[in-house]
Model the fold of this input.
Amino acid sequence: MTPFSIIDKAMTVEGEIGAEGRLVIRGRVCGALQGDHVVIAREGVVSGRVCAGRVDVAGTLEGDVLTEAHFHLLATGRCSGQVRCRTMQMEAGAVLDATVVCSRHHKDDPVAVEVKA
Done:
């Protein structure tokens, strides 16, 4: 079974957080997140850097994202900062105010795409 961790709605965490498996943020985090799969739920707010294999954002993310694989910004999601990923999916209604760099082939061979709302 894949490990699963939650920072729930009533929680506020400051500092660095590292987790294996899926890390779901439903509360507020001010600091750095690192994990296999970070999910910022609709009610979640993250201010800081996120490094993960996969990142899904349905809430608010203010900061930089570095993902080894996929970045998914859902319709209710808001993201500002800088995003570096291999692939990206953005749903209609999402708000993205960030510089986005997606690289399909090699981490040192990026194709830069700047997106402004």
Q: What stands out?
A: The chain is about 0% helix and 70% strand. The longest strand covers residues 12-25.
